[in-house]
């Protein structure tokens, strides 16, 4: 069973629909016990870094999310990816979960409108099972104003004002800045790869 963490901060129904199209059985969960008993965990997020961290702490789910990220197939989406990093310029006094190394920065405005919203291509930096069946320069749907700087965990890069991490992995943790559940064929393929992992 795949648990979709419901802490009030994500596109839960679209994620659930995306997983269903990928052939997975999933359910939205609101308790640490349900996260602990799941086989895999999807961690969505929308909105503000601080609001996501506050909601996670208020609902008593932070430690369960960290336990899942330490040992289970785990997929962070959008702000659900960003809070996996150590910190964010969006909320400099609020630590992230530090599952992934690095920091979240504000997108430079030199290249146009912020937020970055719409379709963008992603270049692979190295092979990974997450990318099986996903061609180089596939397009995915983004909506965000902050980004993770590319580092050793980055396996996909997009360009908008600057090079940014579009896809990251670390051991059992997969994460995307874009919304795979809204990204058509190739987003569906990423979800299928996660279901099969």
TrEMBL record:
Q: Does the record bear Lyase in its keywords?
A: yes
Report the residue ranges that make up the Glutamine amidotransferase domain in this protein: 4-195
Give the catalysed reaction(s), semicolon-separated: 5-[(5-phospho-1-deoxy-D-ribulos-1-ylimino)methylamino]-1-(5-phospho-beta-D-ribosyl)imidazole-4-carboxamide + L-glutamine = D-erythro-1-(imidazol-4-yl)glycerol 3-phosphate + 5-amino-1-(5-phospho-beta-D-ribosyl)imidazole-4-carboxamide + L-glutamate + H(+); L-glutamine + H2O = L-glutamate + NH4(+)
Q: What is its EC number?
A: 4.3.2.10, 3.5.1.2
Q: Where in the cell is it found?
A: Cytoplasm
- Active site positions, chain numbering: 78 (nucleophile), 179, 181
Q: Which UniProt keywords apply?
A: Amino-acid biosynthesis, Cytoplasm, Glutamine amidotransferase, Histidine biosynthesis, Hydrolase, Lyase
User: Pathway it belongs to?
Assistant: Amino-acid biosynthesis; L-histidine biosynthesis; L-histidine from 5-phospho-alpha-D-ribose 1-diphosphate: step 5/9
- Assembly mode: Heterodimer of HisH and HisF.
- Its recorded name reads Imidazole glycerol phosphate synthase subunit HisH
Could you tell me which species this protein originates from? Candidatus Doriopsillibacter californiensis
Q: What is the lineage of its organism?
A: Bacteria, Pseudomonadati, Pseudomonadota, Gammaproteobacteria, Candidatus Tethybacterales
Q: Which gene carries the instructions for this protein?
A: hisH
């Amino acid at each position: 069973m795949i648990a979709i963490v419901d802490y009030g901060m994500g596109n839960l129904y679209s994620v659930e629909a995306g997983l269903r199209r990928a052939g997975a059985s999933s359910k939205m969960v609101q308790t640490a016990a349900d996260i602990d008993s799941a086989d895999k965990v999807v961690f969505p997020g929308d909105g503000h870094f601080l609001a996501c961290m506050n909601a996670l702490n208020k609902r008593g789910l932070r430690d369960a999310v960290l336990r899942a990220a330490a040992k289970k197939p785990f997929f962070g989406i959008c702000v659900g990816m960003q809070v996996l990093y150590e910190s964010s310029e969006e909320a400099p006094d609020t630590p992230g979960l530090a599952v992934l190394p690095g920091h979240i920065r504000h997108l430079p405005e030199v290249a146009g409108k912020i937020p970055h919203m719409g379709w963008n291509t992603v270049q692979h930096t190295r092979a990974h099972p997450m990318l099986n069946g996903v061609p180089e320069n596939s397009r995915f749907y983004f909506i965000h104003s902050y980004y993770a700087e590319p580092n050793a965990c980055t396996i996909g890069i997009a360009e908008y004002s600057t090079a940014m991490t579009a896809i990251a992995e670390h051991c059992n943790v997969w994460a995307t800045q874009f919304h795979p559940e809204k990204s058509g064929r190739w987003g569906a393929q990423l979800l299928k790869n996660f279901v099969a992992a």
